[in-house]
Amino acid sequence: MSDVIVKDSNGTALADGDSVTLTKDLKVKGTSETLKRGTLIKNVRLTGRTGEVECNTRKIKGLVLKSEFLKRA
């Protein structure tokens, strides 16, 4: 991977395998799902792009989220 540092909404650096919580309700494009504020997402993976992480939720696999809506748990 590259040397990209991904930070959450509070400025804390994120790493592979971290758990995060959502700071805002997010509608997922292409589905009828809405991820609610406070949802815990475990084991995020860094994508190598600034401000993005990849994760899986119960119903959605391979989801890419912007780090500005995440807070490290």
Which features does this protein show?
0% helix, 73 residues, SH3 type barrels, mainly beta, three-stranded antiparallel beta sheet, single chain
CATH-level-4 superfamily name: SH3 Domains
Distance between the termini: 23 Å
State the low-pLDDT regions, or none.
none
**Main β-sheet description:** 3 strands, antiparallel
**In which order are the strands of the major sheet placed?**
4-1-8
Structural class: mainly beta
Global Rg: 11 Å
CATH fold naming: SH3 type barrels
- How many individual β-strands? 8
What's the CATH class, please? Mainly Beta
Total of domains: 1
Question: What general form does the structure show?
Answer: globular
Explain what the structure shows.
- The protein is mostly beta strands.
- It is built from no helices and 8 strands.
- It has a single domain (20-72), classed as SH3 type barrels.
- The chain has a 3-stranded antiparallel sheet with strand order 4-1-8, with no helix packed on it. Strands 5-6-7 form a 3-stranded antiparallel sheet, with no helix packed on it.
- Strand 2 and strand 3 (34-35) form a beta hairpin.
- The relative contact order is 0.34.
